[in-house]
Fold this protein.
Amino acid sequence: MASQVNFDKVVRGKRVVLPDEICPAEICIKDGVIAEIRKGNNSSFEAGLEVIDAGDLYVMPGVVDSHVHVNEPGRTEWEGYVTATRAAAAGGITTIVDMPLNSIPSTTTLDAFQTKMDTARDKLYVDVAFWGGVVPGNQGELQAMIAAGISGFKCFLIHSGVDEFRHVTEPDLHTAMQALQGTNSVLLFHAEVDQPIGAQTSTSPQVYETFLQSRPKSMENHAIQLVSDMCQQYGVRCHIVHLSSAEALPIIRAAKQRGLPLTVETCHHYLTLCAEDIPDRATQFKCCPPVRERNNQEQLWDALKAGDIDMVVSDHSPCTADLKLLDTGDFVAAWGGVASVQFGLSLFWTNAAQRNLTVRDLVNWMCVTTSDLCGMGHRKGSLQVGKDADLVIWDPDGSFTVTEDIIQHKNKVTPYLGKVLKGVVQRTLVRGNTVYHNGTFSSQPMGAILLKPITSAK
């Protein structure tokens, strides 16, 4: 029977990942929104309607990567909105959330937030939301930024790596938490604090162990205890970004058992790379906090499965090749950051296939929880009627090799070069528009700026 509704487009497939099951289904799209979901593949539609048939490929919600450094304006030689969002689209990501640094100005004032949005407009191949920053003395800006639609805020408990985004002290945190009480916003923490290091057994800057010993787990552990204490004292929603130290898991577990509003992310590089495998001088592997030992990695995977870690993100933090000091291989002096936004889905799936994890796990940890974190769960993260028609169609059995010519982000330095990954993205749709299809992009950017609705704390 022909449809009585004038849909704009239909995506059908035999393996559609719905909230309640994976089944044959048809996603009917109208005005960029999922208008209807029909289980089965037997509907007939009016002549001329575009029907995308995914066959045996997975059709699932677009990935929401809530931790991306775009660096525009100010450091566009590192990255920019066009290249970052094209890379995201090629990786099946339909929404990214841009960090408040390393752009200039940092997104720590209402004016800077407006500058960010003005700069991003008309350059986006996927949808983009924004994190603001908490720095010493900007507590008076936070309410206005919330009213303007910022997704939440991030702070550093240690030097951020760039002088214009200053880290906060404990007194600064008390001030910021007081300003955020009752707002239903969220404060993200780069959770490392300076700690005595003691004698190092490795001293050559070209050896990864030297850098690893300079950022011990205790730096994270002490910081996460502070975050837990602050979360308990003020009741403000708190989030730990890029958890690396498995030693901090008991603190996190205890906080969650007490019912504190605390969430935690880890990153693809911590779940994929191991300190034991990093060659001398290979500074493309450097990030902060660092990639740690294999045993630590196994504990992170266990914590993810147990629910102690809530989500997995890229922390895409690129820079120009010269800042990685590849010529000298100096781990201590090189910029710390891993460029990987394009490959998150495939990195996760490559690992998941070896750990008896499923596509439903992927959707939960890379779509549902990440969209909820940034205040977009009402629009993003799952295939449901009324939500944005953000979809990725991908082949779970296909594989590819990471080569420079396929990398869409601006600078091609990445620890994944030459690696064979499983899971090939074939098509990405943002609000019903195909923005990526088998190596080609839409002729113009079709992403939009996302603003978080204003709600009061419960």
About this structure: Residues 217-234 form the longest helix (18 residues).
